[in-house]
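MODEL INPUT / OUTPUT PAIR
PAIR INDEX: 1
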Amino acid sequence: MLTLLDRISREVARVTGWIVIATATLMILCLILQVFSRYVLGSAFSWTEELAIILFAWTTLLAATSAIRDGAHVRLVFIISALPEPVRLVWSRVVAAAVLAFCVVFAWSGATYVDSTFGQVTAAMRISIEWLHVVAPVAGVLGALHALTRLLIPLDLKEDSPS
């Protein structure tokens, strides 16, 4: 069962990585187009900045979920490595449980916010604002999946096993 959870988490992180690459690329293209239209054409497009902001939110929050899986978030490695192995294992599970709780709350509050802003549109592109807001519950669910995996299969033990 744990192996299945780990496989699902790994595959979700792999797909998320490709989505992050796509959203970051589109965001950069929007910003380049914004600069080009402003300084070369003399008139900026109204939609490029807004789309870049939406893509930035998706890029950063989705990348953060993969960082949960990989254990790539900032941590005090110097202090953690000084702890005895059993304490380090307990600490990694405490951190994973805290991240899991945060992600569940983030998903729930994000879904509540999407519901409360339903029907609103963006200022420039006039598209549904849910395209921006839905990233919170999506990232919350993905982060919870990866945090649950870290809780049940701590990163320290995972590093010793083949991927």
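PAIR INDEX: 2
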Amino acid sequence: MRGLTDKVAIVPGGATKIGVAVVEAFRSHGVKVVVADIDAANGEKLQGDGVKFVKADLRSDADLTRLVAETKEAFGRIDFLVNVAATYLDNGAESTRAEWLEALDVNLIGSVMLMQAAREELKKNKGAIVNFGSISARVAQTGRWLYPVSKAAILQLTRSQAMDLAPDGIRVNAVSPGWIWSNIMDNLSGGNRPKTDKVGADFHLLPRVGEPEEVAAAIMFLCSDEASFITGTDLRVDGGYTAMGPEGAVAAIPRLID
């Protein structure tokens, strides 16, 4: 990938499974990385060899200002923001006002505040932002309101950011993963990957859940010079989830004939 070596990325949520894959992918391309997360125990494990950990909460403007300052102090520049961090807090129709505000603050607003704090550096270096959408942004899912709504908002945010940051030379895109072997999948299945693949097979044209590294590879492309004329778009890393309609991967017409 052209245009990655010797650049600097900030990865909020870098201590998660997908975040770690993003960090490792950046490292393999010669990018220095600042991992920002509230999970200090796992974040600190990533430090070393061009990776710095900063404990930071996306809900805190002071933390974000400090994050940008520490990144510049450590590595001298900022080229990429990859907004992995998210909360899965969601009680559907029963979600309280406080829960709505919490979900939007973490999943949406925090990334905007980080962009504001890093904008001058991104402008100086003609940088790129990658936001995290989701398949949940495009379909209704039983009992889930907060997460899908916040992800749908991120896709609109991506278009709006791309429009207004283009004069600064900053490209903004999104990735929308399908079911990925992530922290939430690990927790929900009790660490049972074969079971997760079996369930996920029903919802993806490629009959399995995705690997974190597959999402990371798409992000590397969007940050690189290979994507120099791509902005305001969403790359679906979803194994065909959103291509599949309600009929699934089963022939429906024969059911009418029988």
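PAIR 2 NOTE: Residues 97-124 form the longest helix (28 residues).
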